[in-house]
Specification:
binds N-(iminomethyl)-L-glutamic acid, binds fe (iii) ion, 8-stranded parallel beta sheet, TIM Barrel, alpha/beta, Urease, subunit C, domain 1, 36% helix, 415 residues
């Protein structure tokens, strides 16, 4: 058995407790000063202070890891990304800087549909290769579990190709990947006015294969004005649920359509974006245990108002925070950027941000029993920051503080 002892962590952030954490509980990150961890193989065997745990081990049998001056915490869970895609859309970013809107670019054939063409052209091998590079970047930011969506195929072959790329990547690198089927991500011109037909194709021709080959756990849809209506989204999500998929929704991003309310009605695990979520939507998410996933880097890149994360937490919601990394609306995987935006613009405390990036992210991808906190029996997915306190995270603005990443008990990245 491999045995490791991490000791003298200036601050050990455990994030322990039942998940997801709602409202005020998001501030409780179970911080231990002079913290220690016993790790046996890939699992955490004990958590406490150095004084408590040191007498429980025999030093000659353990690899001793001195964390003096460091903050030690659970690896981040990036619970909403679109990291598998072909091509880039740097031109669109420059058009947006000149005043074009995301939706107007989409309506004239750019946006998601532009990436669809490039992703259809890409081979499975190319998607795996670029996906691997992107995962390696995420690992450097301390991400140890990531959610990845399809949605740049909009046809059977390419949707499956994206999901299969993620399945292959699971065996080629350390980050755990949770996959989501997002076939209804956009409406191609030939399907305008025939959205139901498109949804039926996805439901009847693609999703049974996804289920059969265990290619995705979640089903997602872009519920938005001029994309999929609330009625069409409800139709699709209800059927996806019957097929055994857990649910996510791109909800209330540009227009307040009632996506958050829909998430509550269909029993979704999370509603994501929520820039325009209504008061009623916020109440419904809190009441029905829908995780509110905010994606502040997307709002930042689109120069939109941030989601009302502060009000969501104060209303008792469980907030998760994720990157939304994708080639269009948000081409960034930066965890430090998320920390800055949440603390500086959304009024969240660093404790709440940590909860959103760890245990609540884990709950948003259905993994809270395995990752997202440092507790006995959980996977030893642990990151070390090069400063002695969590307060350096927002203070050292926009800077990556992650020095070491341990995944399943093994060090997989060291700066
Ligand atoms: O979550 N809003 C819809 N989908 C993605 C954007 C995808 C893209 O622009 O390529 C999002 O922001
Ligand atoms: Fe997204």
């Amino acid at each position: 058995m491999s045995k490791k002892f991490i000791y003298h962590a200036a601050e050990l952030v455990t994030c322990k407790g039942s998940a997801p954490k709602h409202g005020k509980d998001m501030s409780d990150i179970g911080l231990i000063k002079d913290g220690a961890l016993i790790i046996h193989d890939d699992k955490i065997a004990a958590v406490g202070t150095t004084e408590e745990l040191l007498p429980q081990i025999s030093e000659s049998e353990y690899e001793m890891i001195d964390a003096t001056g460091k903050t030690v915490m659970p690896g981040f869970v990036d619970s909403h990304t679109h990291f598998i895609f072909g091509g880039y859309r740097a031109d669109e970013f420059s058009w947006r800087l000149r005043g074009d809107t995301y939706m107007s670019i989409m309506e004239r054939g750019g946006g998601i549909n532009a990436t669809v063409s490039k992703t259809r052209e890409a081979t499975l091998e190319e998607l795996v290769e670029t996906g691997k590079e992107r995962l390696a970047e995420m690992l450097e930011f301390g991400v140890t579990t990531v959610e990845g969506k399809s949605g740049y195929g909009l046809d059977r072959e390419t949707e499956l190709k994206q999901l299969r790329a993620m399945k292959e990547l699971q065996d080629q690198q350390p980050i755990d990947i949770v996959t989501t089927f997002l076939g209804p991500h956009s409406v191609l011109p030939e399907y305008k006015g025939r959205e139901r037909e498109f949804l039926d194709e996805m439901l009847n021709d693609v999703m049974p294969i996804v289920k059969e080959e265990k290619l995705a756990e979640f089903a997602d849809i872009f519920c938005e004005q001029n994309v999929f209506s609330v009625e069409d989204s409800e139709y699709y999500l209800t059927k996806a649920k019957e097929m055994g998929f857990k649910l996510k929704i791109h909800a209330d991003e540009m227009v307040s359509l009632g996506g958050a309310e829909l998430a509550a009605r269909v029993g979704a695990t999370s509603a994501d974006h929520l820039l325009k979520a209504s008061d009623e939507g916020i109440r419904e998410m809190a009441k029905n245990d829908v995780i509110s996933t905010v994606l502040p880097a997307t709002a930042f890149c689109l120069k939109e108002e941030y989601a009302r994360g502060r009000e969501m937490i104060d209303s008792g919601c469980a907030l998760a925070i994720a990157s939304d990394w994708n080639p269009g609306s948000c081409f960034t995987n930066s965890i430090p950027l998320l920390v800055s935006l949440c603390c500086i613009y959304m009024g969240l405390s660093i404790e709440e941000v940590i909860t959103g990036l760890t245990i609540n992210g884990a709950a948003a991808v259905g993994r809270a029993d395995k990752v997202g906190s440092l507790e006995e029996g959980k996977q030893a997915d642990i990151i070390f920051l090069r400063f002695p306190s969590i307060y350096f995270m927002p203070y050292h603005t926009g800077v990556n503080l992650v020095e070491t990443v341990m995944k399943n008990g093994e060090i997989v990245y060291n700066k």
